[in-house]
Amino acid sequence: MQGQDHASLISCAVLCVGIAAVSTASIFIRYAQAEAPALVIATYRLAIASIVLLPVASLRYPIQARRLRTKEWKLAFASGIFLAIHFATWIASLEYTSVASSVVLVSTSPLWVAITAWLLLGERLTRPAIAGLITALAGSLIITFSDTMQPTGSAPLFGNVLALLGAFAVAGYWLIGRRLRANLSLVPYVTIVYSAAALVLFVTTIVTSQPLVGYSSMIYVWFLLLAFVPQLVGHSSFNWTLARLPATFVAVATLGEPIGASVLAFFLLSETPTILKTAGAALVLAGIAVTMLNQKSVRSIENTEIL
Fold it and tell me: Is residue 124 domain-resident?
């Protein structure tokens, strides 16, 4: 029993490290936005992560990718498109609205997974899950009202819409992932999807004439930190704990990310959320937690890949 308690403490500590790591994403993005546009930041984040993961996937899981059928490769590419849209829209949202609003709204993705699974897959919405959805929606409206009354950012309403689009897109990534993960382990799955997303972003960046080079050296440091800290360390920590702690516990615990990001924004970016926005954020997070705890489609998500 004592050994189990010790293992649980270690798992919880790793989970806390993961939450702290992903909470830095919006801060690194804000610093990189001093020179780089959103598409370029998203491209570098996923390209660097893919380059790091490719050797691991090739050496440890050499057979799995070869077994994928054409239909599954198409699904993987579609998942990559959704992930590319997620990062492009969410990162862009940070140019227009506050960190608190952006991160809370993009974290609503589990709600859209539950709603989509209900509409398209026929999965039943439980009454507590419906209550959680309504609570989160009320919180989102309060955040929007707060940004209307006391704007934070150059165009907060537009930024909030971009953050919600990012949440919708990552919900699509998750729903496709539920099918692909039946035939793929986590590492080859995220390697394939990250690479597809990086390719989509790279092509989009070239087509839109966004410069991939020519930035100051510090901007490239932010790119590297963004790929290694929130993307690789953060998500790897979540996935490690998923094998040792209940999936629902891990999923709900990741809601600490918006809180961590808001705290960092307060100290590092001098962003002070209003009381009204804080209340709205609390409702959103509470609603997401209730939905996660009471909806099968959300609990079944095996890899926590948000920010």
Answer: yes
